[in-house]
Every structure is written in structure tokens, then in C-alpha cells.
Amino acid sequence: MRASLFAVVVPLMAITCRQVLDIEDLREAHTPNEPAPHPCEPTTHTCVAAAPASWIGPVALFIGEGTAPACTGELAETVKTYHDGLIVGEASCQCACADAEGIACDAARVCYWGDRIQCSTACHDFEIDATFPPTVCTYIAGALFARVLIPPPTDVGSCAHVPSHVLPEVAWSTTARACEGPNTPEGCAEGEVCSPNADEPFKTCVRLDGDLACPDGLYRERHVLYEDFLDERVCSRCECGPPNSTCGGAVNFTKGDCTSLVNSIESDHCEDMADATEAEYIPAPAGTCQPSGGQLSGTVTRKVPMTFCCLQP
Question: Which 8-state DSSP code applies to residue 215?
């Protein structure tokens, strides 16, 4: 009798324990007040169209003037900072030449005459009565009139080129920044991804290297932005032609060891030298050169384009 009861009780206890375990499993699967979390949290994320084939994104894109906002929160990863709207400014290339330097002058030559009529004729080399080296006070024989001949320079010297080029610095009028975060298809309809919210002033976009057309679909607002620019503007070298130099100046006829001026006679002029006892040639060398060169060539071009195609508002 005792054996028969045991045979009945043990199976009943096993069934009861199995039922208790099944109930606990159900309770754990449906714990009150704890709903299953939504994979695309609407306060921080949005279901948006997935990036078309070969395109990258979605990303959040800022385009505007001034400093671009930082990438923060779920969109903390900065893709890069981009630009558009080159401000080049007007370039110009100009060349000038400084006055000639290094001009060497020979001695001035003088013809003496007894009257002004004779002195009015040219002073030829075979008629030279005296020569006066530059800046040397030289004693002279008495005469009434003198005609001065100042020869051309023995060395015309040279001119230094003086460039005056204006190549304004290049700037951008528009700054752009792309920020991205994790995108996942969970919790969204087919063809969509759960992406961090791109709040104002950001746009939701996809991107691809190059200057491209936007793909078919919802991403139709096209922006081509650039990482850098290449400035190839140059001004050709300035040059100066040979100087057109003269020695100029005058021969000063003086008294008292060249301290008291009687008359100063320039080249190819005849003047009364009266009671002069000395003469000194004071040259005034001068020369100019014709500038050349200074041609502007080259342009400023944008480099490394990136195409962004954004959802239209």
C-alpha cells in the first residue's frame, strides 16, 4: 500500500515543479513596467533613407559663413572641414628700375677762346686746351672764354630692378563641416537607417569623393565642397635694359684754390671765365633703364572635391 502511494505522489510533484518553472519563465519574459527598448530612439535618432550604393552616410553637414559648429554628441566624429567660394582678389605684376649706379666719368675737356664769337663754335677734340679730371682742382692759364665738353661715361653702370607685385592672399567665403555617427538599419523600415539627428543648422546628406551628380532617390540637394586650393599665380622676373647714362655736371672756374666760384660752365656751353685761376670738374652722373618682365600667369584652382547630396527640406 505504501509503495503504491509513493508511485502516485512522485509524478504529481514533478508535474507541479515543471508548471512552476514555466510560470517563472513567462514572468521573466514579460516583467511589468519594463517595455522592450526601441532601437531608433526618436529623441536622439531618426529613420532616414539609407545611402545609395557606393555613397557614404548619412552624415550631418553644416554649410555657412564664419566658423563651423563643432561635431558633438552622437555626431562627434568630424569627417573633415570643407570650403567653397574662393576669394582671390585682383593680382597685378609691375616692374620698375632704380636709377643707374656705378657710372664712371672721364675728364672734362675745355677749349679756351679770346672772344665770345670764337667761343660759340664747337669744341673739337683737336682744339682741346685742357682736361680736368673729376673732382680735381687744377690750375689753369689765363683766358677770357671757355667752352666745355663733357664726354660720355666710360662705364654706363647698371640699374637694379624694383618689382612691385600684388598677389592677394586667397580666402574662402563658405565653410562646411561634415559630422557623422553610427548608422544602423535596426528599428527602421526597409531602405532606411537609424541615424543620429542632424539638427539645425546641419543637413542630412550622403557624400562621395569627386565632383559628381547626385544619385537617384531622395538625396537631391547637391553641394560640391573642397578641402584645399592650389595657387599657381606667379609674376615673371623683372629685368632692366642697358642704362641711358650721362655724366653731366659742370666745370667750376674758381679763385683761391677752388674755394671762390667765378663761373660754372656746363657741357657744350661757352661762358666768360674772367679772372679764374683754377678749374674743377664736378660730374653729376645720371642714368635710367627701361624695365621689362612682370607678366602675370597662372590661376587659383580648388582642390580635392567632395560631393554632398542632401535631403531636401
Answer: P
Domain boundaries, the chain: 45-91+169-228+303-311, 95-162+237-292
Per-residue pLDDT tens over the stretch 211-224: 999 999 999 999 99
What is the grid cell recorded at 16? 507541479
Asked if residues 206 and 55 have their Cβ atoms less than 8 Å apart, the reply is yes
Q: Which three cell numbers stand for residue 66?
A: 564664419
Supply the DSSP symbol for 13.
H
pTM: 0.65
Q: Which residue has the higher pLDDT, 39 or 292?
A: 292
pLDDT at 26: 33
Could you give the CA distance from residue 143 to residue 54 in angstroms, rounded to a whole number?
103
Closest CA to 103 of 311, 303, 284, 313: 284
**What's the CA gap between 53 and 93, in Å, rounded?**
49
CA dihedral 49, 60, 179, 175 (to 10 degrees): 140
What span, in angstroms and rounded, lies between the C-alpha atoms of 44 and 72?
Answer: 12
Per the structure block, which three cell numbers stand in for 202? 546641419
Q: Give 102-116 pLDDT, tens digit per residue.
A: 999 999 998 888 777
From the number of C-beta atoms within 10 Å of its C-beta (0-12, 13-18, 19+), residue 259 rates as exposed
Residue 134 DSSP label:
B
Q: What is the pLDDT of residue 125?
A: 64
The residue written with cell numbers 539627428 in the block is 197
Mean pLDDT of 66-82: 86
Beta carbons within 10 angstroms of residue 278's beta carbon: 20
* Omega cis (within 30) before 58: yes
Q: Give the Cα separation of 308 and 310 in Å (integer).
A: 6
Find the mean pLDDT for residues 48-57: 94
Distances (CA, A) of 129 to 84, 105, 142: 79, 19, 12
Q: What is the pLDDT of residues 296-313, one digit of tens each?
A: 999 999 999 999 999 987
